[in-house]
Design brief:
The complex is a heterodimer of chains A (about 110) and B (about 475). Chain A has about 110 residues and is mostly helical. Chain A is about 20% helix and about 5% strand. Chain B has about 475 residues and is α/β, with parallel strands linked by helices. The chains are: A mainly alpha (about 110), B alpha/beta (about 475).
Chain lengths: ~110, ~475
Protein backbone atom coordinates (compact mmCIF):
# COMPACT_ATOMS: atom_id res chain seq x y z
CA UNK A 1 0.00 0.00 0.00
CA UNK A 2 1.32 3.44 -0.84
CA UNK A 3 -0.10 6.95 -0.96
CA UNK A 4 0.18 9.46 -3.76
CA UNK A 5 1.09 13.10 -3.39
CA UNK A 6 -2.51 14.05 -4.21
CA UNK A 7 -3.69 11.79 -1.43
CA UNK A 8 -1.23 13.39 0.98
CA UNK A 9 -2.66 16.79 0.08
CA UNK A 10 -6.17 15.48 0.73
CA UNK A 11 -5.15 14.04 4.11
CA UNK A 12 -3.45 17.33 5.02
CA UNK A 13 -6.70 19.16 4.30
CA UNK A 14 -8.59 16.69 6.52
CA UNK A 15 -6.01 17.20 9.28
CA UNK A 16 -6.22 21.00 8.93
CA UNK A 17 -2.58 21.31 7.89
CA UNK A 18 -0.97 23.18 5.02
CA UNK A 19 1.57 21.50 2.78
CA UNK A 20 3.29 22.93 -0.26
CA UNK A 21 3.36 21.15 -3.59
CA UNK A 22 6.11 20.77 -6.21
CA UNK A 23 5.11 23.88 -8.12
CA UNK A 24 4.84 26.13 -5.05
CA UNK A 25 7.63 27.96 -3.24
CA UNK A 26 8.70 26.51 0.11
CA UNK A 27 7.28 28.56 2.94
CA UNK A 28 8.49 28.65 6.51
CA UNK A 29 6.81 26.00 8.61
CA UNK A 30 4.91 24.41 5.71
CA UNK A 31 6.00 20.84 5.11
CA UNK A 32 6.66 19.61 1.60
CA UNK A 33 3.99 17.31 0.20
CA UNK A 34 6.66 15.47 -1.77
CA UNK A 35 8.79 14.78 1.28
CA UNK A 36 5.79 13.81 3.40
CA UNK A 37 4.67 11.39 0.70
CA UNK A 38 8.07 9.70 0.73
CA UNK A 39 8.17 9.52 4.52
CA UNK A 40 4.62 8.22 4.88
CA UNK A 41 5.26 5.57 2.25
CA UNK A 42 8.34 4.35 4.06
CA UNK A 43 6.35 4.10 7.29
CA UNK A 44 3.41 2.40 5.54
CA UNK A 45 5.81 -0.09 4.01
CA UNK A 46 6.88 -1.08 7.52
CA UNK A 47 3.30 -1.12 8.80
CA UNK A 48 2.30 -3.48 5.99
CA UNK A 49 3.63 -6.38 8.10
CA UNK A 50 0.27 -6.19 9.91
CA UNK A 51 -1.27 -7.93 6.90
CA UNK A 52 0.63 -11.08 7.87
CA UNK A 53 -1.10 -11.34 11.27
CA UNK A 54 -3.89 -13.90 11.55
CA UNK A 55 -6.73 -11.95 13.13
CA UNK A 56 -9.47 -14.44 12.23
CA UNK A 57 -10.05 -15.47 15.86
CA UNK A 58 -10.21 -11.98 17.27
CA UNK A 59 -13.73 -10.75 17.74
CA UNK A 60 -13.67 -8.01 20.33
CA UNK A 61 -11.03 -5.34 20.50
CA UNK A 62 -8.58 -5.39 23.41
CA UNK A 63 -9.73 -4.96 26.97
CA UNK A 64 -7.32 -2.93 29.03
CA UNK A 65 -6.64 -3.72 32.71
CA UNK A 66 -8.77 -0.76 33.69
CA UNK A 67 -11.88 -2.16 32.01
CA UNK A 68 -14.75 -1.96 32.52
CA UNK A 69 -14.47 1.79 32.46
CA UNK A 70 -16.84 3.14 35.09
CA UNK A 71 -19.12 6.06 34.46
CA UNK A 72 -17.96 9.29 35.95
CA UNK A 73 -19.61 10.31 39.20
CA UNK A 74 -22.40 12.65 38.08
CA UNK A 75 -21.85 14.80 41.15
CA UNK A 76 -18.25 15.53 40.23
CA UNK A 77 -17.60 19.19 39.55
CA UNK A 78 -14.81 20.40 37.29
CA UNK A 79 -11.98 22.30 38.94
CA UNK A 80 -13.54 25.63 39.61
CA UNK A 81 -12.30 28.82 38.08
CA UNK A 82 -14.95 30.71 40.01
CA UNK A 83 -12.34 32.66 41.92
CA UNK A 84 -11.11 34.07 38.66
CA UNK A 85 -8.20 33.12 36.47
CA UNK A 86 -4.93 34.73 37.46
CA UNK A 87 -3.96 37.41 34.98
CA UNK A 88 -0.98 35.42 33.76
CA UNK A 89 -3.16 32.53 32.66
CA UNK A 90 -5.52 34.38 30.37
CA UNK A 91 -5.43 37.90 28.99
CA UNK A 92 -9.20 38.31 29.40
CA UNK A 93 -11.72 36.57 31.55
CA UNK A 94 -15.45 37.10 32.26
CA UNK A 95 -18.17 35.19 34.14
CA UNK A 96 -16.16 31.97 34.25
CA UNK A 97 -15.20 32.06 30.57
CA UNK A 98 -11.95 32.88 28.81
CA UNK A 99 -12.38 35.59 26.20
CA UNK A 100 -10.53 34.95 22.97
CA UNK A 101 -10.17 37.25 19.95
CA UNK A 102 -13.13 37.18 17.57
CA UNK A 103 -12.79 34.54 14.85
CA UNK A 104 -12.60 35.59 11.24
CA UNK A 105 -15.95 34.96 9.56
CA UNK A 106 -16.46 31.37 8.59
CA UNK A 107 -16.42 31.42 4.81
CA UNK A 108 -17.17 28.67 2.38
CA UNK A 109 -14.08 26.84 1.44
CA UNK A 110 -14.17 23.96 -0.95
CA UNK A 111 -11.77 22.00 1.24
CA UNK A 112 -13.90 22.53 4.30
CA UNK A 113 -16.31 19.82 3.29
CA UNK A 114 -13.63 17.26 2.49
CA UNK B 1 16.25 13.58 52.49
CA UNK B 2 12.57 13.38 53.38
CA UNK B 3 13.34 12.08 56.87
CA UNK B 4 15.74 14.96 57.57
CA UNK B 5 13.12 17.50 56.43
CA UNK B 6 10.34 15.79 58.41
CA UNK B 7 12.48 15.81 61.55
CA UNK B 8 13.31 19.46 60.97
CA UNK B 9 17.08 18.94 60.95
CA UNK B 10 17.20 20.38 57.41
CA UNK B 11 15.15 23.41 56.28
CA UNK B 12 12.26 22.57 53.95
CA UNK B 13 13.80 24.56 51.06
CA UNK B 14 17.31 23.16 51.43
CA UNK B 15 17.21 20.43 48.79
CA UNK B 16 15.08 22.49 46.40
CA UNK B 17 17.57 25.34 46.42
CA UNK B 18 20.48 22.94 45.97
CA UNK B 19 18.71 21.32 43.01
CA UNK B 20 18.04 24.71 41.41
CA UNK B 21 21.69 25.65 41.80
CA UNK B 22 22.76 22.37 40.26
CA UNK B 23 20.22 22.71 37.41
CA UNK B 24 21.56 26.13 36.49
CA UNK B 25 25.13 24.81 36.56
CA UNK B 26 24.56 21.88 34.21
CA UNK B 27 21.72 23.00 31.99
CA UNK B 28 22.78 26.12 30.12
CA UNK B 29 25.62 27.30 27.92
CA UNK B 30 27.64 25.47 25.31
CA UNK B 31 27.03 21.74 25.70
CA UNK B 32 24.57 22.40 28.54
CA UNK B 33 22.08 19.58 29.02
CA UNK B 34 18.96 21.63 28.16
CA UNK B 35 16.99 19.26 30.39
CA UNK B 36 14.69 21.99 31.74
CA UNK B 37 12.24 24.21 29.89
CA UNK B 38 11.34 26.17 33.03
CA UNK B 39 12.77 26.34 36.54
CA UNK B 40 10.99 27.21 39.78
CA UNK B 41 12.04 30.27 41.75
CA UNK B 42 14.39 29.67 44.70
CA UNK B 43 12.26 28.80 47.68
CA UNK B 44 9.45 27.95 45.25
CA UNK B 45 5.83 27.89 46.25
CA UNK B 46 5.23 26.61 49.77
CA UNK B 47 4.19 22.98 49.98
CA UNK B 48 0.68 22.23 51.15
CA UNK B 49 0.11 22.17 54.88
CA UNK B 50 0.07 18.59 56.18
CA UNK B 51 -3.62 18.72 57.03
CA UNK B 52 -4.51 19.48 53.40
CA UNK B 53 -3.29 16.04 52.45
CA UNK B 54 -6.69 14.44 52.62
CA UNK B 55 -7.10 14.73 48.86
CA UNK B 56 -10.13 15.74 46.88
CA UNK B 57 -13.48 14.07 47.23
CA UNK B 58 -13.54 10.52 45.99
CA UNK B 59 -9.79 10.05 45.65
CA UNK B 60 -8.01 7.14 47.26
CA UNK B 61 -4.51 6.97 48.61
CA UNK B 62 -3.73 10.59 49.32
CA UNK B 63 -0.22 10.79 50.70
CA UNK B 64 -0.24 13.65 53.14
CA UNK B 65 2.28 11.95 55.39
CA UNK B 66 5.36 13.79 54.14
CA UNK B 67 6.52 10.76 52.14
CA UNK B 68 8.55 13.12 49.93
CA UNK B 69 8.96 16.02 52.38
CA UNK B 70 11.38 18.55 50.90
CA UNK B 71 12.43 16.21 48.06
CA UNK B 72 13.14 18.12 44.85
CA UNK B 73 11.28 16.61 41.90
CA UNK B 74 11.31 17.48 38.18
CA UNK B 75 8.16 17.09 36.09
CA UNK B 76 7.83 16.48 32.36
CA UNK B 77 6.37 19.44 30.53
CA UNK B 78 3.22 17.59 29.45
CA UNK B 79 1.91 17.50 33.04
CA UNK B 80 -0.11 20.60 33.92
CA UNK B 81 1.32 22.76 36.68
CA UNK B 82 -0.05 25.95 38.17
CA UNK B 83 3.19 27.77 38.88
CA UNK B 84 5.10 27.08 35.67
CA UNK B 85 4.08 27.00 31.99
CA UNK B 86 3.08 23.73 30.29
CA UNK B 87 4.25 23.66 26.67
CA UNK B 88 4.73 19.99 25.71
CA UNK B 89 7.90 21.37 24.04
CA UNK B 90 5.68 22.72 21.27
CA UNK B 91 5.47 26.16 19.70
CA UNK B 92 1.70 25.76 19.61
CA UNK B 93 1.62 25.83 23.43
CA UNK B 94 4.47 28.28 23.96
CA UNK B 95 3.82 30.23 27.15
CA UNK B 96 0.61 28.30 27.96
CA UNK B 97 -0.31 28.50 31.64
CA UNK B 98 -2.73 25.83 32.73
CA UNK B 99 -5.65 26.95 34.89
CA UNK B 100 -5.52 23.64 36.77
CA UNK B 101 -2.87 21.13 37.82
CA UNK B 102 -2.44 17.44 37.07
CA UNK B 103 -3.51 15.06 39.82
CA UNK B 104 -0.03 13.49 39.81
CA UNK B 105 1.56 16.91 40.37
CA UNK B 106 -0.90 17.80 43.09
CA UNK B 107 -0.20 14.52 44.86
CA UNK B 108 3.50 15.27 44.78
CA UNK B 109 2.83 18.59 46.49
CA UNK B 110 0.60 16.92 49.05
CA UNK B 111 3.39 14.40 49.76
CA UNK B 112 5.70 17.36 50.47
CA UNK B 113 7.78 17.23 47.28
CA UNK B 114 9.12 20.49 45.82
CA UNK B 115 8.77 21.14 42.08
CA UNK B 116 12.17 22.10 40.64
CA UNK B 117 11.10 22.64 37.07
CA UNK B 118 9.47 21.38 33.90
CA UNK B 119 11.58 19.07 31.79
CA UNK B 120 12.28 18.98 28.07
CA UNK B 121 10.69 16.31 25.92
CA UNK B 122 9.91 15.36 22.35
CA UNK B 123 7.07 17.60 21.19
CA UNK B 124 3.79 16.17 22.54
CA UNK B 125 5.81 13.10 23.63
CA UNK B 126 6.29 12.01 20.02
CA UNK B 127 9.83 10.76 19.69
CA UNK B 128 12.55 8.58 21.13
CA UNK B 129 15.44 11.02 21.50
CA UNK B 130 14.15 14.41 22.79
CA UNK B 131 15.44 15.88 19.52
CA UNK B 132 11.87 16.75 18.49
CA UNK B 133 11.60 19.52 21.08
CA UNK B 134 10.80 22.96 19.65
CA UNK B 135 13.19 24.34 22.26
CA UNK B 136 16.29 22.33 21.28
CA UNK B 137 17.43 18.81 22.11
CA UNK B 138 18.44 17.56 25.54
CA UNK B 139 21.91 16.06 25.83
CA UNK B 140 22.75 12.84 27.63
CA UNK B 141 24.68 13.61 30.87
CA UNK B 142 26.72 10.43 30.42
CA UNK B 143 27.99 11.60 27.02
CA UNK B 144 26.87 14.97 25.73
CA UNK B 145 27.18 13.91 22.08
CA UNK B 146 24.49 11.32 22.63
CA UNK B 147 20.71 11.61 22.96
CA UNK B 148 19.14 10.99 26.38
CA UNK B 149 16.37 8.92 24.76
CA UNK B 150 12.79 10.06 24.70
CA UNK B 151 10.31 11.28 24.87
CA UNK B 152 10.90 12.00 28.58
CA UNK B 153 14.60 12.75 27.94
CA UNK B 154 14.69 15.89 30.11
CA UNK B 155 13.44 14.03 33.18
CA UNK B 156 15.90 11.16 32.64
CA UNK B 157 18.80 13.60 32.15
CA UNK B 158 17.85 15.62 35.25
CA UNK B 159 18.00 12.46 37.36
CA UNK B 160 21.18 11.14 35.69
CA UNK B 161 22.94 14.49 36.19
CA UNK B 162 22.15 14.37 39.90
CA UNK B 163 19.91 17.47 39.83
CA UNK B 164 16.98 15.58 41.34
CA UNK B 165 16.69 12.10 42.87
CA UNK B 166 13.45 11.43 41.01
CA UNK B 167 11.28 12.87 38.26
CA UNK B 168 7.93 12.32 36.58
CA UNK B 169 7.61 11.40 32.93
CA UNK B 170 4.99 9.82 30.72
CA UNK B 171 5.24 6.55 28.82
CA UNK B 172 3.13 5.95 25.69
CA UNK B 173 5.45 3.52 23.89
CA UNK B 174 8.52 3.41 26.14
CA UNK B 175 9.06 7.10 26.83
CA UNK B 176 10.09 6.51 30.45
CA UNK B 177 11.85 3.15 30.17
CA UNK B 178 13.98 3.86 27.07
CA UNK B 179 15.42 7.21 28.31
CA UNK B 180 16.04 5.61 31.71
CA UNK B 181 18.10 2.93 29.94
CA UNK B 182 19.97 5.50 27.82
CA UNK B 183 20.86 7.65 30.85
CA UNK B 184 21.68 4.83 33.29
CA UNK B 185 18.81 5.44 35.71
CA UNK B 186 15.61 3.61 36.72
CA UNK B 187 12.30 4.25 34.93
CA UNK B 188 8.91 2.70 35.76
CA UNK B 189 5.77 2.60 33.66
CA UNK B 190 2.92 1.42 35.88
CA UNK B 191 -0.16 -0.55 34.84
CA UNK B 192 -2.58 1.44 32.69
CA UNK B 193 -4.99 2.96 35.19
CA UNK B 194 -2.60 2.95 38.18
CA UNK B 195 -1.88 6.70 38.00
CA UNK B 196 -4.41 9.36 37.09
CA UNK B 197 -3.96 10.93 33.67
CA UNK B 198 -5.97 13.99 34.72
CA UNK B 199 -3.83 16.95 33.66
CA UNK B 200 -1.49 14.85 31.52
CA UNK B 201 -1.75 16.41 28.07
CA UNK B 202 -3.19 13.64 25.90
CA UNK B 203 -1.15 12.05 23.12
CA UNK B 204 -2.61 8.52 22.72
CA UNK B 205 -5.14 8.07 25.50
CA UNK B 206 -5.35 4.26 25.44
CA UNK B 207 -1.55 4.01 25.81
CA UNK B 208 -0.47 7.06 27.86
CA UNK B 209 0.55 6.51 31.47
CA UNK B 210 2.41 8.70 33.95
CA UNK B 211 5.71 7.10 34.97
CA UNK B 212 8.52 7.65 37.46
CA UNK B 213 12.29 8.02 37.17
CA UNK B 214 14.71 7.48 40.05
CA UNK B 215 18.43 7.24 40.72
CA UNK B 216 17.58 3.87 42.20
CA UNK B 217 14.59 1.54 42.29
CA UNK B 218 13.78 2.88 45.76
CA UNK B 219 13.58 6.48 44.52
CA UNK B 220 11.34 5.52 41.62
CA UNK B 221 9.14 3.38 43.89
CA UNK B 222 8.68 6.20 46.40
CA UNK B 223 7.66 8.60 43.64
CA UNK B 224 5.24 6.12 42.09
CA UNK B 225 3.71 5.40 45.49
CA UNK B 226 3.11 9.12 46.02
CA UNK B 227 1.27 9.67 42.72
CA UNK B 228 -0.63 6.37 42.31
CA UNK B 229 -4.27 5.76 43.19
CA UNK B 230 -7.82 6.24 42.01
CA UNK B 231 -8.95 9.64 40.82
CA UNK B 232 -12.57 10.22 39.84
CA UNK B 233 -11.39 12.90 37.42
CA UNK B 234 -9.80 10.21 35.24
CA UNK B 235 -12.37 7.50 34.48
CA UNK B 236 -9.58 5.18 33.31
CA UNK B 237 -7.86 5.31 36.69
CA UNK B 238 -8.75 2.26 38.71
CA UNK B 239 -10.20 1.97 42.19
CA UNK B 240 -7.63 -0.43 43.61
CA UNK B 241 -5.50 -0.12 46.71
CA UNK B 242 -1.94 1.04 46.09
CA UNK B 243 0.48 -1.50 47.55
CA UNK B 244 3.46 -0.53 49.67
CA UNK B 245 5.91 -0.35 46.78
CA UNK B 246 8.91 1.03 48.64
CA UNK B 247 8.57 -0.98 51.85
CA UNK B 248 9.06 -4.53 50.59
CA UNK B 249 11.67 -3.82 47.94
CA UNK B 250 14.31 -6.06 49.47
CA UNK B 251 12.14 -9.16 49.44
CA UNK B 252 14.19 -10.29 46.45
CA UNK B 253 13.46 -12.55 43.55
CA UNK B 254 14.04 -16.00 45.09
CA UNK B 255 11.62 -18.57 43.67
CA UNK B 256 10.13 -16.22 41.10
CA UNK B 257 9.76 -17.58 37.58
CA UNK B 258 11.40 -15.15 35.15
CA UNK B 259 10.61 -15.68 31.47
CA UNK B 260 13.08 -14.74 28.74
CA UNK B 261 11.04 -14.06 25.59
CA UNK B 262 13.01 -15.22 22.56
CA UNK B 263 11.40 -12.59 20.30
CA UNK B 264 13.22 -9.90 22.30
CA UNK B 265 16.58 -11.53 21.58
CA UNK B 266 16.79 -11.50 17.78
CA UNK B 267 19.94 -12.61 15.97
CA UNK B 268 20.38 -8.98 14.93
CA UNK B 269 20.87 -7.87 18.55
CA UNK B 270 24.39 -6.43 18.97
CA UNK B 271 26.68 -9.10 20.49
CA UNK B 272 27.74 -6.79 23.31
CA UNK B 273 24.11 -6.06 24.25
CA UNK B 274 23.41 -9.78 24.21
CA UNK B 275 26.48 -10.40 26.40
CA UNK B 276 25.36 -7.84 29.02
CA UNK B 277 21.86 -9.31 28.95
CA UNK B 278 23.17 -12.86 29.47
CA UNK B 279 25.27 -11.62 32.40
CA UNK B 280 22.20 -9.98 33.93
CA UNK B 281 20.22 -13.22 33.55
CA UNK B 282 23.03 -15.02 35.37
CA UNK B 283 22.79 -12.49 38.20
CA UNK B 284 19.04 -13.12 38.44
CA UNK B 285 19.68 -16.86 38.57
CA UNK B 286 22.24 -16.35 41.34
CA UNK B 287 19.68 -14.27 43.24
CA UNK B 288 17.35 -17.28 43.22
CA UNK B 289 15.14 -16.65 40.17
CA UNK B 290 13.92 -19.64 38.17
CA UNK B 291 14.74 -18.82 34.55
CA UNK B 292 12.57 -20.10 31.72
CA UNK B 293 12.55 -19.42 27.97
CA UNK B 294 9.19 -18.27 26.66
CA UNK B 295 7.65 -17.07 23.41
CA UNK B 296 5.46 -14.04 22.62
CA UNK B 297 4.88 -14.79 18.94
CA UNK B 298 3.08 -11.59 17.94
CA UNK B 299 5.86 -9.29 19.16
CA UNK B 300 7.03 -8.74 15.58
CA UNK B 301 3.82 -6.85 14.84
CA UNK B 302 4.10 -4.53 17.84
CA UNK B 303 5.87 -1.52 16.30
CA UNK B 304 3.52 -1.54 13.30
CA UNK B 305 0.48 -1.83 15.56
CA UNK B 306 1.72 1.01 17.72
CA UNK B 307 2.43 3.28 14.74
CA UNK B 308 -1.12 2.85 13.50
CA UNK B 309 -2.92 3.26 16.83
CA UNK B 310 -0.85 5.96 18.54
CA UNK B 311 -0.93 8.37 15.56
CA UNK B 312 -4.67 7.69 15.10
CA UNK B 313 -5.35 8.69 18.70
CA UNK B 314 -2.94 11.61 18.39
CA UNK B 315 -4.65 12.95 15.28
CA UNK B 316 -7.88 13.07 17.26
CA UNK B 317 -6.40 14.41 20.52
CA UNK B 318 -4.38 17.13 18.80
CA UNK B 319 -7.37 18.41 16.82
CA UNK B 320 -8.01 20.78 19.74
CA UNK B 321 -4.94 22.88 18.89
CA UNK B 322 -6.47 25.13 16.30
CA UNK B 323 -5.24 28.59 17.21
CA UNK B 324 -8.45 29.49 19.03
CA UNK B 325 -8.17 28.30 22.61
CA UNK B 326 -4.49 27.60 23.15
CA UNK B 327 -1.14 29.12 22.34
CA UNK B 328 -0.16 30.68 19.05
CA UNK B 329 -2.69 32.02 16.57
CA UNK B 330 -2.16 32.96 12.93
CA UNK B 331 -3.71 36.38 13.33
CA UNK B 332 -3.59 37.28 9.63
CA UNK B 333 -6.01 34.47 8.67
CA UNK B 334 -9.09 35.59 6.77
CA UNK B 335 -11.34 32.62 7.49
CA UNK B 336 -11.80 30.21 10.36
CA UNK B 337 -10.47 27.32 8.30
CA UNK B 338 -7.43 29.32 7.26
CA UNK B 339 -6.87 30.23 10.91
CA UNK B 340 -6.92 26.55 11.90
CA UNK B 341 -4.60 25.47 9.11
CA UNK B 342 -2.09 28.28 9.44
CA UNK B 343 -1.94 28.08 13.26
CA UNK B 344 -1.51 24.31 13.26
CA UNK B 345 1.06 24.26 10.46
CA UNK B 346 3.11 26.96 12.14
CA UNK B 347 2.73 25.51 15.63
CA UNK B 348 3.52 21.82 15.10
CA UNK B 349 7.00 20.45 14.39
CA UNK B 350 7.79 17.92 11.63
CA UNK B 351 7.34 14.73 13.68
CA UNK B 352 3.98 15.84 15.06
CA UNK B 353 2.83 16.73 11.52
CA UNK B 354 4.00 13.31 10.30
CA UNK B 355 2.06 11.49 13.00
CA UNK B 356 -1.10 13.56 12.60
CA UNK B 357 -0.95 12.79 8.88
CA UNK B 358 -0.36 9.09 9.50
CA UNK B 359 -3.21 8.95 12.02
CA UNK B 360 -5.62 10.87 9.82
CA UNK B 361 -4.78 8.52 6.96
CA UNK B 362 -5.31 5.37 9.08
CA UNK B 363 -8.71 6.62 10.22
CA UNK B 364 -9.89 7.96 6.87
CA UNK B 365 -12.69 6.43 4.81
CA UNK B 366 -11.40 3.52 2.78
CA UNK B 367 -8.40 2.81 5.03
CA UNK B 368 -9.99 2.50 8.46
CA UNK B 369 -10.56 -1.27 8.20
CA UNK B 370 -7.16 -1.99 6.72
CA UNK B 371 -5.21 -0.01 9.30
CA UNK B 372 -7.02 1.04 12.47
CA UNK B 373 -9.40 -1.91 12.87
CA UNK B 374 -6.75 -4.45 11.96
CA UNK B 375 -4.22 -2.88 14.35
CA UNK B 376 -6.78 -3.03 17.19
CA UNK B 377 -7.15 -6.76 16.58
CA UNK B 378 -3.41 -7.35 16.42
CA UNK B 379 -3.17 -5.42 19.68
CA UNK B 380 -5.50 -8.00 21.20
CA UNK B 381 -3.20 -10.78 19.91
CA UNK B 382 -0.20 -9.10 21.54
CA UNK B 383 -2.07 -8.78 24.85
CA UNK B 384 -3.14 -12.41 24.59
CA UNK B 385 0.51 -13.51 24.21
CA UNK B 386 1.23 -11.96 27.62
CA UNK B 387 -1.89 -13.47 29.22
CA UNK B 388 -0.84 -16.95 28.07
CA UNK B 389 2.64 -16.54 29.53
CA UNK B 390 1.26 -15.40 32.90
CA UNK B 391 -1.28 -18.25 32.89
CA UNK B 392 1.59 -20.64 32.28
CA UNK B 393 3.15 -19.73 35.63
CA UNK B 394 5.60 -17.03 34.61
CA UNK B 395 5.81 -14.24 37.22
CA UNK B 396 7.89 -11.73 35.28
CA UNK B 397 9.57 -11.27 31.93
CA UNK B 398 13.09 -9.93 31.47
CA UNK B 399 14.27 -8.30 28.23
CA UNK B 400 16.72 -5.65 27.05
CA UNK B 401 14.99 -2.25 27.29
CA UNK B 402 16.25 -1.15 23.87
CA UNK B 403 18.20 -2.85 21.09
CA UNK B 404 21.28 -0.73 21.80
CA UNK B 405 22.70 2.11 23.87
CA UNK B 406 21.96 5.82 23.34
CA UNK B 407 22.73 6.85 19.78
CA UNK B 408 24.47 10.05 18.78
CA UNK B 409 22.60 13.34 18.34
CA UNK B 410 21.37 13.63 14.76
CA UNK B 411 22.09 9.99 13.96
CA UNK B 412 18.47 8.96 13.35
CA UNK B 413 16.60 12.21 12.73
CA UNK B 414 16.52 11.68 8.95
CA UNK B 415 15.01 8.21 9.18
CA UNK B 416 11.66 8.03 11.01
CA UNK B 417 11.44 4.22 10.77
CA UNK B 418 14.91 3.74 12.32
CA UNK B 419 13.81 6.06 15.14
CA UNK B 420 10.53 4.15 15.62
CA UNK B 421 12.43 0.87 15.93
CA UNK B 422 14.14 2.23 19.06
CA UNK B 423 10.82 1.38 20.75
CA UNK B 424 10.67 -2.23 19.60
CA UNK B 425 11.01 -3.77 23.10
CA UNK B 426 8.93 -1.22 24.98
CA UNK B 427 5.73 -0.63 22.96
CA UNK B 428 4.30 -4.05 23.83
CA UNK B 429 3.75 -3.09 27.49
CA UNK B 430 1.69 -0.06 26.45
CA UNK B 431 -0.32 -2.07 23.93
CA UNK B 432 -1.13 -4.67 26.61
CA UNK B 433 -1.53 -2.14 29.43
CA UNK B 434 0.98 -3.97 31.68
CA UNK B 435 3.68 -2.46 33.91
CA UNK B 436 7.38 -2.34 33.04
CA UNK B 437 10.57 -1.05 34.60
CA UNK B 438 14.01 -0.36 33.15
CA UNK B 439 16.99 -0.81 35.43
CA UNK B 440 20.72 -0.35 34.62
CA UNK B 441 22.30 -3.49 33.12
CA UNK B 442 25.98 -2.65 32.66
CA UNK B 443 27.70 -0.71 29.90
CA UNK B 444 29.04 -1.30 26.41
CA UNK B 445 31.97 0.15 24.45
CA UNK B 446 30.78 3.35 22.81
CA UNK B 447 33.33 3.60 20.04
CA UNK B 448 34.77 6.91 21.23
CA UNK B 449 36.29 5.52 24.42
CA UNK B 450 33.04 6.15 26.31
CA UNK B 451 30.92 3.50 27.99
CA UNK B 452 27.20 4.18 27.38
CA UNK B 453 24.86 2.35 29.76
CA UNK B 454 22.28 -0.27 28.86
CA UNK B 455 18.96 -1.03 30.52
CA UNK B 456 17.25 -4.31 31.33
CA UNK B 457 13.45 -4.38 31.39
CA UNK B 458 11.15 -6.36 33.66
CA UNK B 459 7.53 -6.73 32.54
CA UNK B 460 4.81 -7.99 34.88
CA UNK B 461 1.11 -8.87 34.87
CA UNK B 462 -1.33 -5.98 35.49
CA UNK B 463 -1.10 -4.55 39.03
CA UNK B 464 2.06 -6.55 39.86
CA UNK B 465 4.30 -3.51 40.25
CA UNK B 466 5.47 -4.65 43.71
CA UNK B 467 7.13 -7.96 42.66
CA UNK B 468 8.38 -6.28 39.48
CA UNK B 469 10.16 -3.57 41.49
CA UNK B 470 11.54 -6.19 43.89
CA UNK B 471 13.13 -7.97 40.91
CA UNK B 472 14.52 -4.68 39.60
CA UNK B 473 15.91 -3.98 43.05
CA UNK B 474 17.54 -7.43 43.21
CA UNK B 475 19.26 -6.77 39.88
CA UNK B 476 20.49 -3.30 40.82
CA UNK B 477 21.86 -4.63 44.13
CA UNK B 478 23.84 -7.23 42.17
CA UNK B 479 25.53 -4.31 40.37
CA UNK B 480 26.35 -2.66 43.67
CA UNK B 481 23.74 0.11 43.40
CA UNK B 482 22.50 0.59 46.92
CA UNK B 483 20.20 3.60 46.45
CA UNK B 484 20.61 6.70 48.55
CA UNK B 485 17.95 7.71 50.96
CA UNK B 486 15.24 9.88 49.48
Amino acid sequence: MSVSREEVERIAALARLDVFGEDEPAAEGRPSAVRLTEELNRILEHIATLEEADISEIGDPIRLPSDPVPFRDPGLEPDSLAEGAPADRAPRWRDGFFLVPRLPALVDDEEDGS
Amino acid sequence: MAAAVREGSVPADHYLNKALEQARAVDRGHEGLNAFLALAKPGGPAPDAPDSGSGRAGETHPTGDGLLAGVPVAVKDNLCTLDLPTTCASRILEGYRSPYEATAVRRLRVAGARLVGKTNMDEFAMGSSTENSAFGPTRNPRDRDRVPGGSSGGSAAAVAAGVVPCALGSDTGGSVRQPAAFCGVVGVKPTYGRVSRYGLVAFASSLDQVGAFGRSVLDAALLLEAVAGYDPRDPTSVRRPVPDLSGGLDEGIRGRVVGLPREYLPDTLAPEVRARYDEAVERLREAGARIREVSLPHTRFAVSTYYVLAPAEASSNLARYDGVRYGGRASEARSTLELYRASRTRGFGPEVVRRIMLGTFGLSAGYHDQYYDRAQKVRALIARDFERVWADGVDLLFTPTAPGPAFRLGERTADPVAMYLSDVFTVTANLAGIPGVSVPMGEVAGGGGDRPPLGGQFLAPPWHEAPMLQAARALEVSYGITGEDT
